[in-house]
Input
Amino acid sequence: MSKKGLLVVISAPSGTGKDALIECLSQKAPDIFKSISATTREMRVGEKEGVDYYFTTKENFEKLIADEEVVEYTKYCNNYYGSPKAPIMENLEKGRDVVLKIEVEGAMNIRRMFPDSVLIFVLPPSIEELKKRLDKRGTEDECTIEKRMKRARTEVTYAGEYDYLVVNDDLSRAAEQLMDIIKAEKLKTFRNHDIIKSILVD
Ligand code: 5GP
Output
């Protein structure tokens, strides 16, 4: 019997450095499938269609919702963001682990739909550091830094709902911690009943 992949959700307030962190995770574990979300927000300088996001219109996004082609979606700073269903389901079925990089509401919805999913919350070293990182980024035309800071504080109140907390004070160490979590989760007994059964049958 082939085993399904692990569904890993990573949430972090905007400016926590999660893109760099997930990039680092991908390098350490290239077999993990990174879900690419659809969004109606403007493309930022340096972003690429189909790499960072699938950039789309509000009308198209609403069609994706109506056709149930997103597994979850949310509105964040007046833009839609959602996770395309087909690639996630296909990869999980093939036994490949899937990472979703989504905000807290989406994460809570995934937890309801996929109770076996693993939820990881990434924290910045401090709120001052978060503000510094957002200021430095200088890309926030679509939503002010103040709004993102306010949202960041709200998001941190959800951290207790997650299975794991990782503090991103050192990129490589934080990525190692993500790897450790994934490795340990895959060894959980409830995910390995088939091994127990196969031994009992022989
Ligand atoms: P950004 O505009 O900074 O790329 O993303 C804003 C927020 O939306 C981030 O917290 C990001 O993780 C979240 N996000 C990105 N894609 C999705 C998605 O498909 N679903 C949900 N629920 N949140 C998403």
Q: What stands out?
A: DSSP finds eight helices and nine strands in the chain.
